[in-house]
């Protein structure tokens, strides 16, 4: 795999470069956010439901889409960034949820890394889509967590995290504030779930020490991924937290999903086809085996608290 330059004059995400719509990026030095030039969701769309028959229904959903540049350097990834810079990304995520959540019911943060997951640009970046209604997957999670709270009194994913820490077999790593597990129900070979050990509803609610710890946990997990097949590991990841709509959401627990497709090597990936599409997904290895393989890797050396970023701005 060819090494990337620190600055690419043809990259529409690098500082000072022009994007497709004609806008020129500022000479940003840390993170940079802009509204997607070709958004899937638009704020000026009228929200309405169209029912042609009970079998044919459609609902328009206004919203907005933004691109989040994690760093000015074209050749970095979250896995390679200093912890202080990963912490800035954590703060960026939290700020986006706080800001967009004042208007939109759901704020979905995500990152697609690598060509295998459809990323068209290697520059370190993610996205945020905010919408007027809660989409299908988080709505299903909302109902499951609410039902557990009503029926059992506890927070489902807090209890689950405690169970995983006690059993240890599926734990990849654990710190004072976070645990990373290959979930019991994992379908992708090296799928992981990142969960706070204490009750946290959404990213803006994280304390400073929890954010510091999260930066370290993410750096460690991504280093393990990259070492697994000695290859930059592709994945889709995203955060799920309490909806920003009115009402109580104390049944919710913040968490992040990582869905990497690679199975046995850097070139062999898992495909959901045939029986898995038409009947039921199948596991290629157990979550315990996947966790043990990730856990056995050295991970990322711990950086001292308060370490200062040295990434800076690449020369052009």
What's the quick description here?
The chain has helices at 83-100, 136-152, 156-167, 208-228, 275-278, 287-295, and strands at residues 32-35, 49-53, 56-59, 63-69, 106-113, 125-131, 171-174, 178-181, 192-196, 235-240, 255-259. With 316 residues, the protein is an alpha+beta fold. The chain has one domain (32-295): 2-Layer Sandwich (HIT family, subunit A), CATH 3.30.428.10.
Descriptive tags:
316 residues, alpha+beta, HIT family, subunit A, 9-stranded antiparallel sheet, two-stranded antiparallel sheet, disordered C terminus
What would you say this structure looks like, in words?
- It is a single chain.
- The chain has one domain: HIT-like (HIT family, subunit A, 2-Layer Sandwich), CATH 3.30.428.
- The chain has 316 residues and is α+β, with helices and mostly antiparallel strands.
- It is globular, with a radius of gyration of 20 Å.
- A hairpin with a 2-residue loop joins strand 2 and strand 3.
- The C terminus is likely disordered.
- The chain contains six helices and eleven strands.
- Strands 1-4-6-5-10-11-9-8-7 form a nine-stranded antiparallel beta sheet, with helices on both faces.
Helix content: 25-40%
CATH class: Alpha Beta
Oligomer: single chain
Task: Report strand %.
Answer: 15-25%
User: Number of domains in the coordinates?
Assistant: 1
Present the secondary structure layout.
Blueprint: E1 32-35, E2 49-53, E3 56-59, E4 63-69, H1 83-100, E5 106-113, E6 125-131, H2 136-152, H3 156-167, E7 171-174, E8 178-181, E9 192-196, H4 208-228, E10 235-240, E11 255-259, H5 275-278, H6 287-295
Antiparallel strand pairs: 1-4, 2-3, 4-6, 5-6, 5-10, 7-8, 8-9, 9-11, 10-11
Helix pairs in contact: 1-4
């Amino acid at each position: 795999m060819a090494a990337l330059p620190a600055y690419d004059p043809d990259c529409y995400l690098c500082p000072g470069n022009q994007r497709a719509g004609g806008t020129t990026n500022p000479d940003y030095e840390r993170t940079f956010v802009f509204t997607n030039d070709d958004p899937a969701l638009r704020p000026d769309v009228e929200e309405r439901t169209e029912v042609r028959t009970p079998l044919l229904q459609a609902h328009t959903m206004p919203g907005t889409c933004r691109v989040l540049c994690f760093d000015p350097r074209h050749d970095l990834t979250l896995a390679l960034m200093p912890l202080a810079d990963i912490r800035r990304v954590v703060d960026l995520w939290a700020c986006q949820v706080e800001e967009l959540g004042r208007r939109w019911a759901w704020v979905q943060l995500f990152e697609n890394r690598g060509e295998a997951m459809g990323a068209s640009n290697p520059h370190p970046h993610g996205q945020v889509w905010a919408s007027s209604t809660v989409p299908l997957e988080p709505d299903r999670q909302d109902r499951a967590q609410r039902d557990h709270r009503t029926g059992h009194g506890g927070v489902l994913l807090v209890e689950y995290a405690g169970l995983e820490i006690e059993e240890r077999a599926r734990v990849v790593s654990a710190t004072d504030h976070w645990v990373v597990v290959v979930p019991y129900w994992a379908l992708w070979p090296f799928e992981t779930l990142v969960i706070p050990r204490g009750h946290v509803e959404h990213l803006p609610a994280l304390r400073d020490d929890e954010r510091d710890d999260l930066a370290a946990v993410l750096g460690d997990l991504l280093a393990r991924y990259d070492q697994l097949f000695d290859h930059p590991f592709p994945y889709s990841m995203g955060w799920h937290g309490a909806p920003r709509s009115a009402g109580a959401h104390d049944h919710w627990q913040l968490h992040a999903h990582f869905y990497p497709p690679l199975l046995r090597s850097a070139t062999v990936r898992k495909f959901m086809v045939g029986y898995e599409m038409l009947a039921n997904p199948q596991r290629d290895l157990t979550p315990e085996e996947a966790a043990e393989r990730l856990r056995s890797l050295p991970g990322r050396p711990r950086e001292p608290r308060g370490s200062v970023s040295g990434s800076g701005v690449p020369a052009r």
